[in-house]
């Protein structure tokens, strides 16, 4: 029997042929992350499973009513819940910047640092370190960030450029791949090079194992200027 939970949507990011959707449930003054997942091998969520009536895509900062079946933790991704594919998601309302500020987290670091890819920095965790990880989602605030739009290598000029976010948090530098489709397209449209973000919230996710590593990803970006200009927080 399905249980319905209201989540503040804090990610609707690319994942294989579908999406990875995640949000916070706020209940009786407490909050916890929930990531609805499917029964597929990679647990991505299809369009039919996540969209509102009229094929409307859920947006970050929507409050969504989501039918779920039961917790379905996968390793350190303890936030996972199996979704009920028979029932449609519903939008309840949206939150603003001030309400988003109340959800800010303050982790000491973004999991384990010191491991890098050729294009990233502090962007991977070796699979053998996985037993040191106890969760997979963080909502952090950064004063600024640089979005880097680059071709992966000189022979990839005919492919779509990659988008990475470079920022500092808690004394460490990160350069992480962006999987937020809205901001990927926005910054690709602005062309190759560096693009600056002002004060922003980032949803950072630690993905499932891929070729011996877990990768840190910027699953959503919420820039203050995109939400409202009147907030002082």
From TrEMBL:
Organism in which the protein naturally occurs: Saccharothrix espanaensis (strain ATCC 51144 / DSM 44229 / JCM 9112 / NBRC 15066 / NRRL 15764)
Highest taxon of source: Bacteria
The name this protein goes by in its record: Dual OB-containing domain-containing protein
Domain Dual OB-containing positions: 5-221
């Amino acid at each position: 029997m399905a249980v319905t939970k209201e989540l503040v949507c804090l990610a609707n990011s690319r994942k294989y042929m579908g999406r990875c959707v995640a949000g916070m449930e706020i209940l009786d003054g407490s909050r916890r992350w929930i990531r609805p997942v499917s029964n597929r091998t990679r647990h991505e969520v299809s369009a039919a499973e996540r969209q509102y009536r009229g094929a409307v895509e859920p947006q970050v900062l929507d409050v969504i009513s989501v039918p779920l079946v039961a917790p379905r933790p996968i390793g350190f991704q303890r936030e996972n819940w199996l979704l009920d594919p028979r029932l449609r998601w519903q939008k309840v309302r949206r939150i603003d910047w001030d309400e988003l500020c109340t959800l800010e987290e303050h982790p000491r670091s973004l999991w384990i640092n010191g491991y890098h890819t050729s294009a990233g920095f502090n962007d991977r965790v070796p699979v053998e370190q996985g037993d040191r990880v106890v969760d997979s989602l963080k909502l952090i605030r950064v004063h600024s960030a640089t979005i880097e739009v680059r071709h992966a290598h000189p022979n990839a000029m005919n492919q779509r450029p990659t988008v990475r976010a470079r920022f500092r948090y808690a004394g460490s530098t990160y350069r992480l791949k962006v999987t937020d489709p809205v901001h990927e397209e926005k910054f690709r449209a602005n062309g190759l090079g560096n693009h600056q973000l002002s004060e922003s919230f980032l949803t950072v996710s630690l993905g499932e194992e891929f070729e011996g590593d877990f990768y840190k990803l910027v699953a959503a970006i919420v820039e203050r200027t995109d939400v409202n200009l009147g907030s002082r927080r």
